[in-house]
Design brief:
Blueprint: H1 7-10, H2 19-30, H3 36-49, E1 56-68, E2 77-79, E3 88-91, E4 94-96, E5 104-106, E6 113-117, E7 123-127, E8 145-149, E9 158-162, E10 167-173, E11 183-199, E12 208-213, E13 216-220, E14 233-235, E15 249-252, E16 261-264, E17 267-270, E18 282-285, E19 295-299, E20 308-312, E21 320-329, E22 335-343, E23 362-365, E24 374-378, E25 398-405, E26 411-419, E27 428-431, E28 440-445, E29 448-460, H4 461-467
Parallel strand pairs: 15-19
Antiparallel strand pairs: 1-29, 2-3, 3-4, 4-5, 6-7, 8-9, 9-10, 10-11, 11-12, 12-13, 13-14, 15-16, 16-17, 17-18, 19-20, 20-21, 21-22, 23-24, 24-25, 25-26, 27-28, 28-29
Helix pairs in contact: 2-3
Length: 491
């Protein structure tokens, strides 16, 4: 079994104040001789920038808070629920008051328990669903994802939840500071997909449920005058074989026309020019993640002016990468993409020797404040229980991969370990909780609920260089994976 946590990566929780100088140093030590001309140009660029270099560099580390050890949800989110202007944490039936997350409240009754058998044969009732304290696979059927928004317009944020794929979406209306459980409304009967999301797809300035349902991709919009009623679904696709447990979903402006497109693991759906509901959206096939990954994002990774796609390759296997949009079209006029899988099964397939499985949740956010978005992901702890996926007993890691643009449009993703004993679920909540200008994270999964607070520290250039992860496999390159090369679930 490979080791998912190289020692060098464990001390690499850093970021740079000078991307140009850092890119030059990385590519000087790592690039083959064929890149010498590009390196010379990079050195010239760096020399021109030397007067602007700061004496100090910014290191980013994270402080871990354990909010709960029991399994209540596969997701978590931040949002101000008590109207005090400070983000709170939400996971499962609970919310915790920020910014210290000590005081806990119930949104709905936390009555779920399971029976755990001890080694001596006796049994004990445990809170929550059967997770890390148990021995069998189980799911938090009523809650996989949470989202915070003021749906009824009363000034108090409410909570929207999705459960196990194929189950309803529930809207919990905030009682505006009054005690007691929140009133629940069933607003959508079946949210399919294992990475459904919530956001403004149709461009009306208000968010929608984005999912597939009954064999169609699309979105469900509320009647904003009666948000507790059932939300109608707009299908953007023609009916297909997409079922409850389809993997991989996201949205973003992939073709640069100012309208949101919908992404799935086998292609993308172009929003029509008239409006989002005027006609079926145009389907553009593309093999983004043949195994079906996690959340998907449209983002210009290499700075060439074209939006690319960022996602994991197989939620129950291995693979993390980005898919570069090319200027070429295929014979049918669809944009072409080139795959760049920079982390796969073997540590030797990553420049820094990092490899882990079950990347079932992905977020794209600027962690270090350099203006480029970075990847946050990790190992989904016991995604299929203690024996259902590759390396279920490996450390439950959380990483962020720093995007660094090199000369000639080259790209590097530098791994930084956040934690090795929590992992991820199906959702990663992101918000700047402590006000330091850097994002913080909240995670809910079978190990419990955890908050990671960013901590920035100014250090010297020498200390910053010493903290960078070592390149262990300089010849490791990113590549497109064929469908038969994707390493998926073992059971």
């Amino acid at each position: 079994m490979h080791s998912p946590i190289p020692v060098a990566a464990d001390v690499s929780r850093c970021t740079l104040a000078s991307p140009v100088a850092a890119d030059v140093s990385r590519w000087t030590s790592q690039a083959p001789q064929a890149n010498l001309l590009r390196l010379a140009a990079a050195f010239a660029l760096a020399a021109a920038a030397l007067p602007a270099l700061a004496a100090d560099h910014n290191l980013i580390s994270f402080r871990k808070l354990t909010l709960d050890r029991f399994y209540w949800s596969e997701g978590a989110i931040f949002g101000d629920l008590n109207h005090d202007g400070k983000p709170d944490a939400v996971s499962g039936p609970y919310w915790w008051e920020g910014p210290d997350f000590v005081v806990r409240h119930e949104i709905y009754p936390s009555t779920t328990t399971f029976s755990m058998k001890r080694a001596d044969g006796t049994e004990e009732r445990m809170a929550g669903f059967e997770g890390a304290f148990g021995r069998h696979n189980s799911y938090s059927g009523d809650n996989f994802f949470s989202f915070v928004h003021d749906f009824d317009g009363d000034g108090w944020n409410d909570v929207l939840t999705y459960g196990l794929p194929g189950t309803p979406a529930y809207l919990y209306i905030n009682p505006a500071g009054k005690p007691g459980h929140w009133k629940r409304h069933t607003v959508f009967d079946a949210v399919d997909n294992e990475s459904p999301t919530f956001g403004d797809v149709d461009g009306d300035g208000r968010p929608e449920i984005v999912c597939n349902s009954a064999g169609n991709f699309g979105f469900a919009s509320p009647d904003w005058k009666n948000v507790g009623s059932k939300w109608p679904f707009t299908a953007v696709s023609r009916k297909g074989a997409w079922g409850n447990f389809t993997h991989g979903l996201g949205f973003g402006d992939l073709n640069g026309d100012g309208r949101m497109d919908l992404l799935d693991h086998g292609g993308w759906w172009e929003q029509p020019a008239a409006n989002a509901t005027s006609a079926a959206w145009t389907r553009h096939p593309a093999e983004f993640s043949p195994g079906g990954g996690a959340q998907m994002f449209a983002y210009d990774v290499n700075g060439d002016g074209l939006a690319d796609v960022v996602t994991s390759v197989a939620a129950h296997g291995y693979g993390l990468g980005w898919y570069e949009q090319l200027r070429d079209k295929d014979a049918d006029g669809h944009p072409k993409f080139r795959g760049h899988v920079f982390m796969n099964k073997e540590t030797s397939e990553n420049r820094y020797g990092v490899a882990f499985s079950q990347l079932h949740a992905v977020e794209l956010v600027d962690v270090d404040g350099d203006g480029l978005k970075d990847i946050v992901t990790g190992k989904c702890f016991w995604a299929h229980g203690p024996g259902g996926d590759p390396d279920p007993a490996a450390p439950a890691v959380v990483y962020w991969f720093e995007l660094a643009r090199g000369p000639g449009g080259t790209v590097d993703w530098i791994p930084h370990l956040i934690d090795n004993d929590s992992g991820i679920g199906r959702q990663i909540g992101v918000m700047d909780v402590n006000g330091d200008g850097h994002p913080d994270f909240v995670i809910g999964n079978k190990k419990g609920t955890f908050v990671f607070l960013s901590q920035a520290k100014k250090v010297s250039e020498a200390d910053w260089k010493a903290s960078l992860p070592a390149v262990k496999f300089a010849d490791a390159g990113d590549r497109q994976l064929r469908a038969d090369e994707v390493i998926q679930r073992t059971k």
